[in-house]
Amino acid sequence: MAKVLVTLSELFYRAAPRLKEKIEELGAECLFLDSKNVSREALLTRIKDVDIYVLGVEKADRELIDAAGKLRYIIKFGAGVDNIDVAYARQKGISVTNAPGQNASSVADLAFGLLLAGARSIPQTNAAVKNGFWKISMGYELDGKTLGLIGFGEIGKRIARRASGFNMNIMAYGTYKDYKSAKQLNVRFAELDDLLAKSDFVCISTSLRPETFHLMNEERLAKMKNTAFLINIARGEVIDENALIQALEQKKIRGAALDVFETEPPSARVTSLPNVICTSHIGGATFESIRRIEKITSENIGRFIGNEPLTFTVEAGKART
């Protein structure tokens, strides 16, 4: 009997109510650990006799892979695999899959919500009114403004679709260039420096890779308009957080909305800034996206147990998101 370990937050686990039941219906044993409450030491102990590991944000690094003597399959309960040492896993003969695109609409909704919140200072005005201050905040219309997308994968395309409904001009930068979708959505591809110089709003949705680590550094932040607003719903490490704090403090850019941070939870150096909107990495946290991922996860476990080809297999450096 295959043994499956699932480490997700209790919130995500409750949103995927049939995951354990579906795994057990496949004839496997399923152990769930709340990722918020399990220590690294406990995880390294539990992983020793596991065949299949389903994880969210926990690190499946060399240490964990070496500790997992029986491990044959790692499943990312989501899209981004930057927390998995895919190359080492493949070297060890361990299969890796993810669930690309399943949370794209959820993340795009949040991104555009943050864009609107930044354009009209909605959180700041809400806080002022609730604290007894009748504050009138001047904002910006989206009609005719330029949105620069860093990343044009499934999430980037959905953000573009929402922006087109607001009559925004849309530019995009990234290694993945879907010219057909760009034409349909009236998106123009551009070099990064050009995009940063011309955009009123910059939204980051690219995956975290060695070449995107600190992509938005001091030099690149300086290329943005001082009236521009930056949104990050990708990974915190894509932005040099110290450089961003400096740019915000010195008002080199108008503001930022961040769902992800270099360290989570983030420090007060970021969250205390008046021109920053913060959310707690909730981009994919919708009932709909979790249940789609639940379906793909349980189906792939069934394929693995039945020695059938897996879907969404990840090779080193080539994950779909």
In short:
This protein is of the alpha/beta class and 321 residues long. The protein is 37% helix and 16% strand.
Please report the distance between the alpha carbons of the first and last residues: 31 Å
Helical residue percent?
A: 25-40%
Average pLDDT rating: 95
| Biggest sheet features | 7 strands, parallel
Task: Give the low-pLDDT segments.
Answer: none
* CATH architecture verdict of the largest domain: 3-Layer(aba) Sandwich
| Whole-angstrom Rg | 21 Å
* Overall structural domain count: 2
Strand content: 15-25%
Global outline: globular
> Structural class of the secondary elements?
alpha/beta
The CATH top-level class label of the largest domain: Alpha Beta
Description:
This is Glycerate dehydrogenase. It comes from Bacillus glycinifermentans. This protein has a seven-stranded parallel β-sheet, sandwiched between helices. Helix 6 crosses helix 8. The chain contains 14 helices and twelve strands. Helix content is 37%, strand content 16%. The protein has two domains: 120 residues, Rossmann fold, CATH 3.40.50; 176 residues, Rossmann fold (3-Layer(aba) Sandwich). The chain starts with a strand and ends in a 16-residue tail after the last helix. By secondary structure, it is α/β, with parallel strands linked by helices.
Element layout with pairings:
Elements: E1 3-8, H1 10-15, H2 19-25, E2 29-34, H3 40-46, E3 52-55, H4 62-67, E4 73-76, H5 86-91, E5 95-97, H6 104-120, H7 122-130, E6 146-150, H8 154-164, E7 169-173, H9 179-184, E8 187-189, H10 192-198, E9 201-204, H11 218-221, E10 229-232, H12 241-249, E11 255-258, H13 268-271, E12 276-278, H14 287-305
Keywords: NAD, Oxidoreductase
GO molecular function, one term: oxidoreductase activity, acting on the CH-OH group of donors, NAD or NADP as acceptor
Family: Belongs to the D-isomer specific 2-hydroxyacid dehydrogenase family.
